[in-house]
Design goal:
By secondary structure, this protein is an all-alpha fold. Helices cover 85% and strands 0% of the residues.
């Protein structure tokens, strides 16, 4: 049975991964004029991804 913390960790990880993939695709496309938006989305994606992975590993250790 999955707990709400595990579901939250999975959601955070997936959101972070989506943000990182979006940033990578936009950088490779290089037609984007909004560099600040890419930085913000990339940093938020990295934060969400690392928080989700950390939460999932902390739950598996217990």
């Amino acid at each position: 049975m999955t707990s709400s913390k595990q579901i939250f960790g999975i959601i955070l990880t997936l959101l972070g991964l989506a943000g990182l993939i979006y940033t990578a695709v936009q950088i490779i496309d290089s037609d984007s004029d909004s560099f600040k938006t890419l930085i913000v989305v990339g940093i938020l994606g990295l934060i969400f991804f690392s928080a989700g992975v950390k939460l999932l590993t902390a739950l598996r250790d217990t």
